[in-house]
Structure formats: C-alpha cells, structure tokens
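Researcher: Next entry in the queue.
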Amino acid sequence: MQQPLINGGTMDEDSNFKWEKEIIPPLQRKNIDKKILLKKQESDYSDPKANKILKKLRYKSLSSLKAHSNNEAEDDKNGLRAFCLSQIKMKNLKSFTLNLRDSDNQMLASISRSMKSLNRSEKFHFIASACQSVTDNGLKNFTQGLKKLNQLSDLSVEIYSGAKMSTKEIQASYSALKRFRALRSLRLYIQDFERISDKSVLSLTESIKKLSFLSKLDLSFYGYSEITNKSLEYIPRSFRNLQTVKRLHLDFCSCDQINDKGVEDLFLGLRESHLETLQLSFSYCANITDRGIKNFSNFFQNYSGLSHLSLDFKGYYGITGEGASSLFLCLGYLRSLLSLHLYFSSWQILTDDSLKNLSISLQNNKSLNDLLIHFGDYLAIKEITNRGLGYFITSLKQLPVLKVLSLNFNYLVEVTQEGFESLFSAFESLKTLSSLDLSLTKCLSIADKQIEALSEGIKNIESLSFLKLNFKDCIRISNKGFLKLCSNLLNLISLTNLSFEFGDCKKLSDKAILGMFLLLKELRSLSRVDLHFDNCPSINSSKLKKSALELANCDVFLNDHKITSEEIISEMKNE
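Model: Structure for this entry, 575 residues:
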C-alpha cells in the first residue's frame, strides 16, 4: 500500500525512510535538475528494501541531496556509513546537506571518503548534534574530506558537544578554510568547546582574510568561556579589506570574559566595513554595561547604510533602562533600515522613556517592513505604562509598508485595558501586514473587550497569511471574546497559518473549541493550525481532537503534536 507524500512522492509502508522527488514530465526530465530528499526514520540503511530504493536514486543529473539521520542505534550508524561510502556517486551534485543525530570517528571517516565524488559541489551543509565520542582523528579526517570540495561557494558546519577535540586540531581545521577561495557564504557553529580561546579565533580570522569573494559570514562562539576582548578585535580585521562582506552574524552568548572594551573594539573595527546586514548577540554576557552600549551610538552615526539589524542583549543587570534608551535613540540614524530585531529582558528595567526613544527612531524609518521587539520574559514589567505604549502605538501607525510584526510584551502589568485596546486598534492601519506574532503572556488586564478590539483591528488585513497569538495566563478571557476573535478571522482570505496559545485561560471551555472549529472550517485558505490550551480544566483534549476533524484539508497540531484520524480512532477504541 502506498502513502502519499509532499510533491507527489510516495513511500512504501514497509520501507525505513521517506524520500521525495519532483514529478517531472518524461520529455522534460533530461533538462531539469532533479531534487531528492532522503529522510531516515527508524532502522538502518542496510535494510534490503532501503538499498533497493537507494539504487533508484543514482541519477546522473541529480543536483541536490539531503540526508537526515535521527536514530542513535549502532545499526543506524552502520547503515548511514554504508550510504555515505557507496551511494554518493553523483558526479553532478551541486548541493549536499547531511544532518546527523549522533557521530563518531568512523562516521566522519566515511563521510570524508565519500567527499571525493562531491568535488563539483558548490554547497555543503553539515550538522552533527552529538559528537561526544569524536576525537582529533575524527575531526582531522573530516577536514581532509572538506579539502576535496574545492569548488565550494557555500559552506555551513555545525558541530555540538565535541569536548574530546583538542584546541590544536580545531585551529588546524580553521586554518584549512583558506583553501576555499571561491567561498561566498561561511557559517560555523562549533558549540560546547570550552577550550577554544582567542588563539583559535585568530587562526579562523587569518583564513577568512584569504576569502576574497566572501559576502556572508555567520559565526557562533556560544558559551566559549576562554574567549576575551581580543577575539572581538581580531574578527573585524579578518574582512577589513574584503569589501564583498555584506552580511555579518556574530553570536557571543554567555562569553563571560567579554566586556565593554570588547564591544568598543568590535565597533572600531566595523567602521571600515561595508555591511548591509548586522546581527549581534551578547545575551547573558554579564560584563557588558550601559557604557558598552554607547559605542553603538558612535557607530550608527557614521554608518547609516545598514538595511537589516538584529541586536540581542537578553539577560543580566549590566544594561539598564538608561542604556536601552540611549541605544534606541541612536537607531534613528539608520534611515535605510528594512528590518529591525531587538531582544531585551524585562529585568533590564525598560521604561516609558525607553519606548519613547524607540518610537522616535521608528518614525524615521518609513521603509521598515520587518519589526521584531521582544522585551518580556518571566518577570513583571512595571515601568512601562499606557504612556510608553502610547508612544509606540504612534510610531506603529507611521510604518506604511510593514509586512512582518512580532511583539513580545509579556507581563505588562501596569498597562490598563484602555492601553491594550489602543494597541490592538492600531493594527487596523497596517494594511500591508502579512505576518503578525503577538505575545502578551500574563497581561492581567486583558479581557474579552480587548480580544474583541484585537479581532476588529486585524479583520480587514487581507494580506495577513500568518497569525500567532499568545495570551497564556490572561485569565479574564472567556468563550465570548475568543469566539468573537474566531468569527472575525473569516475575513482573512489569505490566512494559511494560525497559532493560538491560551494556556491557563480557565474561563475557556469545550464550547469555545467546538465553535472555533465550526468557524475555521469556512476559512478555505488555512493549511495549518497550532493550538495550546494547557491547564484549561473545562477543555477536554479528546473532544478537541475529535472536533479537529472538522478541518479536513488542514493540519491541526495540539501542543506541537499533529492530530491524526488514526490517533483519534485509537483513543476511541481505548475508551
């Protein structure tokens, strides 16, 4: 028996992995590059039926291949090793992605040998999420294999939990990167390596200097406790003379030895760059304070060409409302911004004045089409009131081309019902919005009237295709407000993805769920619905799952688990 898969592919019920391919008319097949996705499920690739399918995949013109392994069992490793050694004989392969759940030295050796046949590949993405047993020999073999891919333009390597690899071998791997002279995109996420130091970063930056075509650089130093301010001085030097680098992402999350001086050195180095996109994460860097934030102001005054900016300063008390206010005000220098993402923690004492300065800057960015502001976590924000939210609302109404909006204002305990009604009513002016992600966890003044104001604010945004609403722990919301929201969604003719988080809203009952599904089945555009109703005692999860069958042409997920008719039938039998 055959089960249908995406894009018209099929899967034999007895086979051990999924595979997909494009459906191409026979007459066109010679001229179109075929793409195949292999996805490992439960057992190993040495299974006879699996091998039979694999033999069918030896297309000479195959251009793109993805393989995913999710099983840690030894037979799974053996099967994937065999796959790497014997199956990748595709001389025209341009793109190869390999995602491993578990790795060891033998696995990396097998991958390395298979790379000989991939010497025409332009894109190689490798992810290994559990490398506890990989030693220097494994990393050395992997690096030797990479050297065979001399036509690479896009390289991404993610290795996690490799504690047995030495600093010396990691530096040798970094040094090998200078061979890839055609590289345009480099992404390195080498995490959980406590011994990586400034010296290792220096080896990496020396290699980057040789990559004269590099346009995108993405580096993560997450949790590197040995990295100091020196590394922030080295990194900008690596592409100071590379005018091609336009996109830069640096993650220094939990690098405890980095302080204000390091931030200053980083921005001094970036002054001579030609960046269009800048993403920086200093979350949980305990020694960065308001003084370090002031360096952003000096940089932004002299560097107004940025079109995409993301800043993450979550965690710790070093940055206060004063520092945030200073940063938000200097964003006004960036008149060409298309995308702005800001991450702060509520314990950093954000205030009405912080929002006022942010609002002033937003009003200077009429071309902004992507705005993400995450201020809340799990602590009450007591310093933001209706006044501060009012400033923000004013600026929101003056963003005429905004397409993506994500707001995390959790725990706004001092904002009143009138304040939230004003915010929700402002959405009515966002006529170009295609995506709205709104999180207002434990905003206790939100009740049915405010939810109705939200539904009125968004009901005429015909371009809205993605809607995610999080009102967890807003305990005053009842069936009345919830059903009003659902009924107004019927006007959103472009809506394809909908997500509701109403956990701990104890006034909601089965009546609201049944009504929701009866209304949503009229919304023909929907393809996916995600639902979270944890700790709602009047909502029966079994009844919810049965009601989900109303959405016959839509995937419904409850607490991130897909609801299927087979599951419902099984539960009914067990009742």
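Model: Residues 1-54 have pLDDT under 50 and may be disordered.
Researcher: Noted, moving on.
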